[in-house]
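Ex. 9. Protein: N-acetylmuramoyl-L-alanine amidase.
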Amino acid sequence: MNRINKIKVIFTFFLTILSFCAYSQSNVFKVTLDAGHGDHDFGAVYSGRIEKNIALAIVLKVGKILELNPNVNVIYTRKTDVFIDLVERANIANRANSNIFVSIHCNANKNTAADGTETYVMGLTKLASNLEAAKKENSVITLEKDYQRKYEGYDPNSPESMIGMTLMQEEYLDNSISLATKIEDNFEKLGKKLRQGGVKQAPFMVLHKAYMPRVLVETGFVSNPTEGNILNSEEGQDDIAKAIAEAILSYKREYFGSGTEVPESRPIRDTSTPAKPKTTPVAVTKSAPKGTFYKVQLIASIKKTPLEPKNFKGLKNVTMIFENNIYKYFYEETSDYEKAKKFLQEAKGKGYGAAFLTATKDGEKISIQDAIK
Ligand SMILES: [Zn+2]
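Predicted structure tokens for N-acetylmuramoyl-L-alanine amidase:
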């Protein structure tokens, strides 16, 4: 073999190794599990039921079930009783390029009759009860050094103040709601053990900082004597962990494939792209007009809001579509790209900092790049 051929063989060998590594990488579903609180941050404590311990026990059990699956890579923000900054928890998931982020907590309320599981997705809310949960979980940042600088002056006592800094990436919201729904549905299967509080939306800092489908599970109220004892028991934790792990695996099968297929025969869907709508989008306003149109997407939400200017910071001509169990709200509509950009600036000026342009051609969603062409 001459020198050139030798180099060729070595080169081909390395290329094969590289592509194999790339393939196995893309075939692995990465889950970041976050056990809330830790060390001097106990979370909620009622009659010896300690949130940080319960959250960690459940996380370790969820991880153990997931790790039985060779195509799942579990990343833990903590596996022991240590304190970790909120932003670092999200960054652990960001650095790992995690496919999903699941933060696990317990709820608490002065009213010890309060009970039920709640699974949160990132978003805005005016509901006092949802804001209460976010306020409680976000307040742990005050235990961190230099939190005011780190969190851009964010005031944990007014979770609403996150609205300005919130990015409402719709693809994360679609997938986050899907995962949250699976978790809550599985809690329901536990029978009467835990009341199913359902999927909710609130501005949680730890979710805000994670750039992937993300949910925060309040597994029940430690303040409620009956529910608290379930949460604090080995059996209760096993049940909850199983419900969460199975929901994660079901999500993986739906959005990522089973991990056993050859990519050519069935493409594995990247979870960073939105899931295909299961239902045909329902246009609330009018039937699709011919031609290319631009609209400004203001927000996406699981709540239906009447299309009145007072609900949209004074913006008129707001329309809505219901797609994938999510309401999406749009401002204006124009076939002129320059005008569309002005509408976008207007929306941002009103406080919709994460608003973005969307485009349709003959009623079908297309990319902005294609629309401009
Ligand atoms: Zn908590």
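Check your answer against this statement. The longest strand covers residues 292-301.
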